[in-house]
Amino acid sequence: MSGREFDVVVVGAGFAGLYMLHRVRALGLSVRVLEAGDGVGGTWYWNRYPGARCDVESMQYSYQFSPELQQEWDWTERYAAQPEILRYAEHVADRFDLRRDIDFGTRVTAAVFDDGAGRWMLETDRGERIAATWCVMATGCLSAPNDPPIPGLESFAGPRYHTGRWPHEPVDFTGLRVAVIGTGSSAIQSIPVIARQAAHLYVFQRTANYTVPAHNRPLDPAYRDAVKADYPAMRARARQNFPGIDYRINLQSALEVAADEREREYAARWADGGLPFMGAFRDLLLDPAANDTAAAFVRAKIREAVADPAVADALTPRNVIGCKRLCVDTGYWATFNRPNVTLVDISGAPIEAITADAVRANGREHPVDALVLATGFDAMTGTLLRIDIRGAGGRRLRDKWAEGPRAYLGLAMAGFPNLFTITGPGSPSVLTNMLPSIEQHVDWIADCLAYMRASGLARIEATAAAEDAWVAHVGEVAAPNLRSTCSSWYVGANVPGKPRVFMPYIGGFPAYVEKAAAIAGAGYAGFVLT
CA separation (Å) from 337 to 250, 285, 303? Predict the structure, then answer.
């Protein structure tokens, strides 16, 4: 073999990669992290678009593996913005001296399992080859930006930005005519900010989206101190909640209470803000009639907020609330009352073309100076499939996943020995608070490596039968849930040609943790260890 050799190579230096590095080091194994960016932070390194902010409250969107870290870091806002989250990731990297084991500016282009040597051989865009017994993909669920196949996109003469690949230096839209294509989470966060700068903003909307207000504010020091005084209790409550977030879920049905009581519950949730709105009643994602009550409440809020009835109607979603990612906003709908903002509804027909200085839609040219693509990501599988990953016998991952992702627990795959994926398809991941889900996966992998080392084992591989059973289970729990009923990025609908498979595990964080722990406790049932 040429190049360097390690016990473990980790791909990615976001929150998953940083914690994986910390845990592997503690096992006494040699480890190297390969990171495409020039710094740590993953999602929060790349996504620097205006208004970028987490939709999980900052006191919960944080590591819990170190009590000291929890006590020493002070968040400043209820919902932390991208710069603060990036500073947090950088603080963690420095506090635990992680940078010395990270190769920055190094993109992995291939990972091939050598059957004879029982090792992974990784190749990078720097021409280096690196060998490892175990390979851990900490590549993230939303890290492969989706570029839309719009005719003429490359001909646009002005500056063009993708929210998932935003420049590191500030972008000033003052005096410019700007087009934002897309109305998902990044668009909903950035549109109000861009509108305050731009001479005119055109928003091209294919699908109207639901959003709930953040009601963000500076973090109350008394609240922050109270949480810190009893952090373990908050974390324990979160672990028992379906999304891994500590908030009250009303166990009543939306249909078993009187209409006025139901409205009071929605109003209280709306006034508090954020994702807990969907916890107003237990059956909002299980019963279409119950879901209709929540959707009607939000639709009424749109009509209240938007002055022009025609614009309000175009902004009003007709689908199930929560089947697409529920967004959290600050002043989104009110932005469409500004005289310099125009909504362009392209639900009936896609954008026809982009020219050097305009976007053509509905037979009309919209002259623009700058273009913002808020078109999301090739979610869950995109980053992995952009690497040439080949397992035992040279089998390519892109062939294995040609009809949709297949994995055991979202952690490992049959035919790909000694390869782990953190928050991969088939795990709760994007339906939960990502930080606890990341920590649970990292801890599971680290404990597995410790078990193998103590047992004198060198190779672990999921069986095809276990993988098949898990994939079937993921599909079974998704079927009755309303999240699986619409064309969302959860099923790959935003990427042309991508197989339509509901990718995350929708059975909830507590159930998943219990199943994963039981499998490990049974000597890693469903795996072959040699």
Answer: 35, 31, 12
